[in-house]
Every structure is written in structure tokens, then in C-alpha cells.
Amino acid sequence: MDIQTILVIILFAGALFYVGRIVYRSIAPKSNGCGTNCKCGVDFSNIEPDKK
User: Is the pLDDT of residue 7 over 60?
Assistant: First the structure.
């Protein structure tokens, strides 16, 4: 193998790692529970429920 082929293989492996990391981070569950607008930390004690 010549040096150009080795460099192309290294760059291709790096690109695969980079794309795989992006995909994994978008699919993996988030570790912080309240970091996404889930309203789990909101205090609803002073709000009366609507009874219809």
C-alpha cells in the first residue's frame, strides 16, 4: 500500500467515527431529566383543575 491509500483509509475511518458519534448522540437518551422542556419541575399547586 502506498501512503495515499493509507491516508484515504484513515480519513474515511475518521469520517465514519464522526458521523457515527453524531447519530449515537441524537439517538441516545439524555442523562439530564429536566434539561428538555418537559415541565417536570413546574409547581402546579396554585392552579385549580378545570372541571367540565
Answer: yes
Dihedral sign of CA atoms 25, 26, 27, 29 in order? positive
| Cβ neighbours for 36, distance < 8 A, ≥ 6 positions apart | 30
Q: What is the dihedral of CA 25, 29, 33, 35, to 10 degrees?
A: 30
pLDDT digits (tens, 9 = 90+) for 12-52: 999 999 999 999 988 877 665 555 566 666 676 777 777 76
Q: Are 20 and 27 in contact (CB under 8 A)?
A: no
